[in-house]
Amino acid sequence: MSDFQELKNKGFNFHQENNIDEAEKCYLKALTYENNAEVNNLLGIINLQKNNLDLAVEYVQKAINIEKNPYFYEILFQIYIKKCDFQKIVDMEKDVEILYPEEFSLIFNIAFANKNLNKIKDGIYYYEKAVKINPDSYDAWFNLSHLYGIEGETYKAVEALEICKQLKPNDKDTEYFYSIALLRIKDYDKGLKFFEKRLCKDIAVASQNKTYPNKATYENLWSGENISDKTIFVYYEAGFGDVIMFARYFPLLKKRCKKIILKIQKPLAKLFLENHQLGIDEIIYEFVPESDIDFDVHLPMLSLPYVLGLKGEDVFVGHDGYLKPDENKKNEYEEKYFKTDKLKIGIKWQGNTYYDIDRVIPTEAFFPLIEVPNTKFYSFQTFEGSEEVKKLTDRYDIVDIGKDLTDFSMTSATLSNLDLVICNDTSLAHLAGALNIPCWIILPYEVNWRWHTDLSVCDWYDSVKLFRQKSVGDWKSVFDEVLIKLQNF
Questions:
Q1: What single-letter DSSP state applies at residue 324?
Q2: How wide is the angle at C-alpha 143 spanned by C-alphas 138 and 149, nearest 5°?
Q3: Would you say 257 and 279 are in contact if contact means Cβ atoms under 8 Å apart?
Q4: Is residue 43 a contact partner of residue 17, using CB atoms and an 8 Å limit?
Q5: N or C: which terminus of the chain has fewer CB atoms within 10 Å of its end residue's CB?
Q6: Which CATH number fits domain 327-487: 3.10.290.10, 3.40.50.720, 3.30.200.20, 3.40.50.2000?
Q7: Looking at the chain, which residues constitute the CATH 3.40.50.2000 domain(s)?
């Protein structure tokens, strides 16, 4: 046996024992005898394990220069993925596709790299190739369904997720994302059933069960039975916008029960207390001991349309508005802020970035709109993102109302003095829609399920119009469209 082969074997044995330092010494010494592709690749793997990523790239690239081998490319891709250098993978995609068109892992990783670079169409192309090579790959089908959804190919997304369901039967994550795809195509009859698999529901139910272990039990979750003589406890499970959007179902719930107790976030409490027409009997927004609350059944709020048994277009009940402002507050704010003959427009550019940073609009995008003659703009930005207001007030005569708003009752009353709201996909948009105030929602390229596929209409709110980015991250084109619309408003 040659010295090279002996050192290589010795290094390999150390490597298998996870003694990577000794393995590295053997491999390096072996290279002094022969510049071998396999040994260079093994040194690349060791440096990947040590997180010496640049050095790992050098060794694996040397291996590829000596010998074209799909396994070497696979290791190189793993290094670039760990480096989050997805462009390097994409740069090699054509060569790899020619050399190894049937190597599933390589094609899959090329698709993955394109996805991470927001090259959605290219990602679809390579994931489609991947599932042809390996039709049983759950990960490939699942990622493909996501990209189909972004591109608006929603029926293909549904089909891909149906395959995922076959590959992983009864998997909760799969069934949840399947529900989102169904809701996106307005198949609420089937979609709401699978929507019950959502994580936020489980968390909300578990939280209330912990707070009220003897009353909010899993056995007395309302499932649609007759509760005409009973009290139901309904509680929030998501953000402000979801609570406002799903408040449309309370009048229907009131017809089915004796009493409604609603637990919501404190900033929403006054708004809901003012809207008696919803039929809510009691509102709580702080901790109430179990001894001081009495109910027969309970339900997280986003389950209302499913348990109420709503079908088809009935899901969109209240689309012409179902909330009202406090008239005294509205008049008070009119005197304070809105004494002008100009077109009064409220704007907001950011919601809770914990959920989605793609929805955040750069404040500079509003500049051309503010310059439209005979308009008066009002910032409704509160809390996170409000530091951006200065970019507008330093340049234009903008009224910063957001700094004075402490709850949604105030926001509702102020909002009701406007002619138009222009904002990102956030709770302000839902509030404007629920109040039947004209509102233009500026959407990112990846559109939330609730806005569906046909963006020419908004099924949830008659007063809302939807505008979508033409490509990922491209706010300019969508604001050019909004500008034309505003000039003719």
A1: -
A2: 130
A3: no
A4: no
A5: N
A6: 3.40.50.2000
A7: 327-487
Among 23-32, 213-222, 229-238, which is the least confidently predicted range? 23-32
The pLDDT value given to residue 314 = 96
The whole-number average pLDDT for the span 221-234 is 97
User: Crossing angle of helices 104-116/120-133, nearest 10°?
Assistant: 160
Structure tokens at 276: 């008696």
pLDDT band at 359 (very low <50, low <70, confident <90, very high): confident
Cα-based torsion angle of the residue sequence 251, 449, 470, 94 in order, rounded to the nearest 10 degrees = 180
pLDDT in tens, 22-39: 989 998 998 998 999 999
417/461 Cα distance (integer angstroms):
18
Nearest to 374 by CA among 420, 416, 415: 420
DSSP state of 361: P
The model carries a pTM of 0.91
Residue located via tokens 């994550």: 173
Identify which of 387, 427, 425, 418 has the alpha carbon closest to the alpha carbon of residue 403.
387
Nearest CA to 300 out of 250, 237, 244, 255 is that of 237
Cβ distance 483 to 467 under 8 Å?
Answer: no
- Can you give the three-state secondary structure of 199-215, one letter per residue? HHHHHHHHHHHHHCCCC
CATH fold of 200-316 reads: Rossmann fold (3.40.50)
pLDDT in tens, 98-132: 999 999 999 999 999 999 999 999 999 999 999 99
- What is the architecture of the domain spanning 3-193? Alpha Horseshoe (1.25)
Task: Give me the mean pLDDT over the 228-245 stretch.
Answer: 96
Q: Are 404 and 440 in contact (CB under 8 A)?
A: no
